[in-house]
Amino acid sequence: MFLGGRKRRCHKVRGMLSEYIDNRLDSEDRGVVERHLEICEACSNELESLQMTVQLL
Questions:
Q1: Is residue 16 very low, low, confident or very high in pLDDT (cuts 50, 70, 90)?
Q2: How many CA atoms lie within 13 A of 50 on its CB side?
Q3: How is the chain split into domains, by residue range?
Q4: pLDDT for 41
C-alpha cells in the first residue's frame, strides 16, 4: 500500500518538475515538490537530469 502511494506521489511530482525548474509553480505546489525531493532520491535524480538538459539548451 505504501509503495503504491509513493509511486503516485512520484508520478505527480515528476509531472511538475519542468514547471518547478522554470519557477512556474505556486508556493503550495513548490512546497510539495521540495518536501518530496528531500525524501525521494529517484525524483531528486530526475530533477538533476532535467536541470542538466536545460543547461545544454
A1: very high
A2: 15
A3: 2-56
A4: 97
C-alpha span between 37 and 18 (Å, rounded)? 14
Q: What is the pLDDT of residues 21-44, one digit of tens each?
A: 999 999 999 999 999 999 999 999
Taking the C-alpha atoms of residue 53 and residue 27, their distance in angstroms, rounded to an integer, is: 24
Question: What pLDDT, on the 0 to 100 scale, is given for residue 30?
Answer: 98
Nearest to 18 by CA among 54, 56, 57: 54
Q: At what angle do helices 27-39 and 2-21 cross, to 10 degrees?
A: 120
Residue 25 Cα distances to 4, 12, 21, 28, 53, angstroms: 25, 13, 9, 8, 20
Residue 21 to residue 47: CA distance in whole angstroms:
8
**pTM, 2 dp:** 0.84
